């Protein structure tokens, strides 16, 4: 399988578990630090389209910034996808992680059965 892009925050325990899973399953990947190299609005828009997930699923809902900035209320009030991608592109800590980007799929969060189906 071709390399996938693994977008992560190294201090995140779920990201560390996901990376160990990739290594254990022999999946080759390019590692990208989500804060040092935050996804752009265009990347996020393309990934969301490829993932088939609603834009909301790309937000790190358990993060401090998400709560501090009242993003749930913004989404509930009808934030457009374009506005949501622009917001996500402002700070990598707003983005749900890890993200695995393959040629024809995008996985958001670490769910072993989904990863197994897409990567093995």
Outline the structure in words:
- This protein has 120 residues and is an alpha+beta fold.
- It is built from six helices and four strands.
- It has helices at residues 13-24, 41-51, 64-68, 71-76, 81-90, 112-119; strands at residues 4-8, 29-33, 99-101, 106-108.
- It has a four-stranded mixed beta sheet.
- Helix 2 crosses helix 5 (81-90).
- The longest helix is centred in the N-terminal third of the chain and has 12 residues, at 13-24.
Q: Topology, pairings included?
A:
Layout: E1 4-8, H1 13-24, E2 29-33, H2 41-51, H3 64-68, H4 71-76, H5 81-90, E3 99-101, E4 106-108, H6 112-119
Parallel strand pairs: 1-2
Antiparallel strand pairs: 1-3, 3-4
Helix content: 40-55%
Spatial extent as radius of gyration: 14 Å
How far is the N terminus from the C terminus? 9 Å
Count of β-strands: 4
Largest beta sheet: what is the strand line-up? Answer: 2-1-3-4
Query: Helix segment count?
Result: 6
Largest sheet: 4 strands, mixed
Give descriptors for this structure.
120 residues; alpha+beta; 4-stranded mixed beta sheet; 6 helices; 43% helix
Summarize the structure.
43% of the residues lie in helices and 13% in strands. With 120 residues, it is an alpha+beta fold. Helix 2 packs across helix 5.
């Amino acid at each position: 399988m071709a390399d996938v892009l693994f977008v992560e925050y190294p201090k995140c325990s779920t990201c560390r578990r996901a990376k160990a899973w990739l290594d254990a399953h022999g999946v080759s990947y390019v590692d990208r630090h989500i804060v040092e190299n935050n996804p752009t609005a265009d990347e996020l828009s393309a990934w969301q389209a490829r993932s088939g997930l609603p834009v909301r699923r790309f937000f790190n809902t358990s993060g401090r910034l998400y709560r501090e900035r009242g993003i749930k209320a913004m989404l509930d009030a009808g934030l457009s996808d374009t506005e949501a991608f622009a917001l996500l592109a402002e700070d990598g800590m707003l983005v749900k992680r890890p993200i695995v980007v393959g040629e024809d799929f995008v996985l958001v969060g670490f769910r072993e059965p989904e990863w197994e189906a897409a990567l093995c």
